[in-house]
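**Reference record**
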Amino acid sequence: MKPQQDIFLLAFYHMKPRPGVRTQIAGWMNDPANITHDETVEITRGQHKNITRAKVVLNLSKKTIERNGWGTDREFNEYFKHYFKGFHQYITSVMVQLDPEYLNNMLDEMQAEIDLSNSPEETKEATTE
């Protein structure tokens, strides 16, 4: 029997100039405001050959951060939420099979964050009426 391989989320980032940036001017890349990133995500089983090129690597099986090329101190759950927002259809199909309880907890947490962010506006509207 083949041993179970972990499932990874690999995130790749490609720099490109923001719209309207005049790239013909020398030094345009020195200003971070002139640059944006395209984000590409792959979900793989096992140590994939592209894992060394990925800026961020999450082990979805163990819920750990294998690589954080941004150098930030974000937790696994923060990264999970970030990638879920843009790639929910792929992450959902994997997590339903891998750990449905974790997925449900994260969905509840994200919904609570949305409710919390909406509640100050509702309170403000109620007090002005």
The chain has one domain: 7-117. The mean pLDDT is 87. Helices lie at 76-98, 100-128. The first strand starts at residue 7 and ends at 17.
